[in-house]
Write a structure and sequence with these properties.
Helix content: 25-40%
Number of helices: 22
Strand order of the largest sheet: 7-6-12-11-10
Bound molecules: zinc ion
């Protein structure tokens, strides 16, 4: 009778003891957890830096700082066959246990007791992860710490996170860590592409990485793999058929090299973003391959002639992303500095910037495609631009000046644009290689008197392809998508694009002349001073491609001409990328209209223009002054002299259309044998002084300070008198300090001997119009 309460007491005592024990263990565990917190940073050792293409494929990997290959793999990228193989072989109850499997611990303890040593079979994946995280000796104390860490890991992480850490830390022999690096190096695959046989091999290797690595011990590796496969089949985790198929797979006998694609860009990005372990580029692997192959193919025959290198960039318009960058002929060609990135090396662009001058001329209303520019000698305070062929071509249209890449018209147009010219435009468009002020470059900027990189140059042209929007190009997914206000009107870009697609021009590569199915491309070439750099940049609606050919040592070669060295690469690439028949072209913007212009002056046709032609223009932007070269004069029937409104009163006359050129142009045409209709001289008995253009004194300019060089005879220091007059002028008169010193044809050269002092020079034409120039001669 007194047994009952005691039993209750005993039961209560046992229960509360167990509870107290559990509570105490919990307290101890919590205290231990605080005293020895999980070294989480060991779970994420510094990985290899990887550079990926736009589809996530591996372009290149760099060794981690401790010279290990660690390519981080997300749990989502672990294939089920690999998880199945590892869990089926190592830890069947992984999803159910709490870090330690009590059944196998008990079994292992028995074996240990019987055999007097520590077995390892009891290790769960969690315990193995604990050991990978914190390598310990195989002692009892080590085992206890491992179990404790396993509890901590299970407490802290989900099962998938534990697996993910395990797959990233498992050793695969040598400097290979984790399945990301192992599947690359042993199978040349991404983990998600692994077969069952490959997964089984990767499940086996971490048990003894240095004796099971297949590149050194293929037979042992094969045996270990087959053991895993048979166990999986015995445990019902793979079917008979799967087993047979996997057993028949060969085991790799060597290591694959890590991919080494786009070496220049990936290297530069790694240096530029040292903290970034995953460089997700915008490169397209097939375009990258194409760019490299084409560059090599075209450079190969040039190399024996001293042209060692080249570079190619491909930009996709619209998204403005870099799709390919080939930086040199061969990255490993140390003799020719193959590791230099030719796409980002600053070089002189030659004529490759000219299209932007014409675009600006159209944007600011100075010219339209058929406008005339004067390709005649000019002097901008000592700077006298010459053409490539050292000749002048007189009056040329904008179209002709651009496709023939004439220097003088481009320089003159840029001079006329003043503050709206090329320099500030390039600054606004984001060119980073113009460190100096505008005056440093002067007008030679137009002719390539500066430096650009191929990448930035191509990106400028992409701005034309995008209708005047100039913005940075992206090459990393982490970069923002840049937007910008247009710097050029879409209509102006369209007009320029139409000019740049002209095929009949000097810079069309001769090797391409026999091809008929050339895709439509807008392009321009450039050749730098001394034939050091050959350029070619072109665009279609979809792509902009830039090509540079030259040598990194800066040596020139006669073959280094944009048209022949660089343009063939450009055309080969576009032929590969664009279908000559089916490629959509830019559609004409609504603000581009057609009009009739004078065939001679290119100005909107007037009533006296003998012939006209079609021109595309942008109303509101393009110049609209009607042709003033074709004018009507009145000719006296009796004397054949020209009459003015003053002297024609009461006389019998007829009307005749003549060409009236500006003074400077007329003088040049006269001297260079251009047939100008002779214009009769003014009716001699007329007393009225004509209005309009008088002579313009070119030399010596007004305000000149001249100095007599001592020791040299004066006859070698004569002063050249030069004035531009209209082609209506037959005779000019020069007066020095009031004394007539010359009278005669405006084409004749006139010189005077210098005399110290201040002088006034006057030039008068046969209609009495005159100009003065004052100059001083210093003794
Ligand atoms: Zn006309
Ligand atoms: Zn008159």
């Amino acid at each position: 009778m007194d047994d009952q309460p005691r039993r209750i007491f005993n039961a209560r005592f046992v229960l509360s003891s167990v509870l107290a024990g559990l509570l105490l263990s919990l307290v101890v565990l919590i205290a231990a957890n605080h005293l020895a917190p999980l070294p989480v940073h060991h779970l994420r050792p510094e990985p290899s830096t990887v550079a990926l293409d736009r589809h996530g494929g591996l372009l290149r990997a760099f060794l981690a700082p401790d010279d290990m290959w660690r390519i981080r793999t997300h749990y989502e990228d672990i294939p089920p066959c690999l998880e199945n193989a590892v869990l089926g072989y190592e830890d069947q109850y992984f999803r159910r246990h709490f870090g330690v499997n009590p059944v196998s611990v008990a079994r292992a303890a028995m074996v240990d007791l019987l055999e007097g040593r520590f077995a390892q079979g009891a290790s769960t994946i969690t315990m193995q992860l604990a050991r990978l995280m914190e390598p310990k000796d195989r002692t009892l104390a080590g085992k206890i710490v491992e179990v404790f860490r396993a509890f901590q890991l299970e407490w802290r992480f989900s099962k998938n996170e534990i697996l993910s850490h395990y797959f990233n830390l498992a050793p695969y022999g040598g400097n290979i860590v984790g399945v990301g690096a192992a599947s690359r190096i042993y199978f040349n695959k991404e983990p998600h592409q692994l077969s069952l046989g490959e997964a089984a091999l990767l499940a086996a290797i971490p048990n003894s990485p240095n004796t099971l690595r297949p590149d050194r011990h293929p037979r042992r590796a094969l045996r270990a793999r087959n053991k895993v496969l048979r166990l999986l089949a015995a445990r019902g985790r793979v079917t008979r058929e799967q087993l047979e198929e996997a057993l028949s797979e060969p085991v790799p006998g060597r290591r694959y090299a890590m991919p080494f694609e786009a070496p220049h860009l990936t290297r530069d990005l790694k240096l530029q973003y040292p903290g970034e372990k995953r460089l997700e580029t915008t490169l397209d692997p097939s375009l990258q391959h194409l760019a490299e192959v084409m560059l090599r193919r075209h450079l190969k025959p040039l190399r024996p002639r001293g042209i060692a290198n080249g570079a190619v960039v491909i930009i996709e318009n619209g998204v403005r992303e870099l799709r390919a960058l080939a930086g040199s002929y061969d990255f490993f060609d140390f003799r020719h500095q193959g590791q230099v990135n030719g796409a980002t090396a600053p070089r002189s662009p030659g004529s490759a910037l000219k299209p932007f001058v014409y675009a600006l001329g159209m944007q600011h209303g100075l010219v339209s495609p058929r406008s005339l520019l004067y390709d005649i000698p000019v002097n901008y305070s000592g700077y006298q631009p010459l053409n490539y062929d050292r000749r002048f071509h007189g009056p040329v249209s904008v179209e002709e000046a651009l496709v023939r890449s004439l220097n003088v018209p481009a320089v003159s147009l840029d001079a006329a644009l003043k503050e709206n010219g090329l320099y500030y435009f390039l600054k606004d468009a984001g060119l980073s290689t113009l460190p100096e002020i505008r005056d440093h470059y002067g007008l030679s900027l137009v002719l390539g008197g500066c430096e650009v990189t191929l990448l930035e140059l191509a990106n400028l042209y992409a701005g034309l392809a995008e209708g005047g929007r100039f913005r940075p190009c992206r090459w990393l997914e982490s970069q923002p998508r840049f937007t910008s206000e247009p710097l050029l009107d879409p209509g102006v870009c369209y007009l320029l694009t139409e000019i740049l697609t002209e095929l009949r021009r000097p810079d069309f590569p001769s090797t391409w002349e026999r091809f008929t199915d050339i895709p439509k491309v807008a392009w321009k070439t450039g050749t730098s001073y001394g034939h050091r750099d050959a350029w070619s940049v072109g665009y279609t609606p979809r792509y902009t491609i830039g090509v540079w050919v030259g040598s990194f040592d800066g040596k020139g070669a006669p073959e280094l001409v944009g048209a022949e060295a660089a343009a063939p690469v450009l055309f080969s690439l576009f032929s590969a990328l664009e279908d000559p028949a089916g490629t959509a072209w830019f559609s004409r913007p609504d603000n581009v209209k057609s009009r009739r212009v004078c065939s001679v002056s290119g100005m909107p046709a007037g009533p006296h223009c003998p012939s006209t032609e079609e021109e595309l223009h942008v109303p509101g932007l393009s110049p609209h002054r009607v042709c003033d070269i074709h004018q009507v004069i009145q000719v006296d029937k009796e004397t054949g002299k020209r009459l003015c409104p003053h002297c024609r009163i009461g006389r019998d006359y007829e009307e005749r259309v003549i060409e009236k050129w500006p003074a400077r142009m007329a003088a040049w045409m006269e001297k260079n044998g251009y047939p100008l209709d002779p214009v009769p001289e003014h009716f001699p008995r007329c007393t009225r002084i004509a209005s309009g253009d008088g002579p313009v004194i070119v030399s010596p300019p007004d305000g000149s300070e001249l100095k007599i060089r001592p020791g040299a005879p004066l006859r070698y220091q004569k002063i050249f008198l030069d004035a531009s007059v209209s082609n209506l002028t037959r005779t000019v008169y020069w007066f020095l300090d009031g004394q007539l010193v010359f009278s005669g044809s405006p084409a004749e050269k006139v010189f005077i001997l210098p005399a110290p002092g201040a002088h006034t020079l006057l030039c008068m034409d046969d209609e009495g119009r005159s100009t003065r120039s004052r100059f001083t001669v210093h003794p």
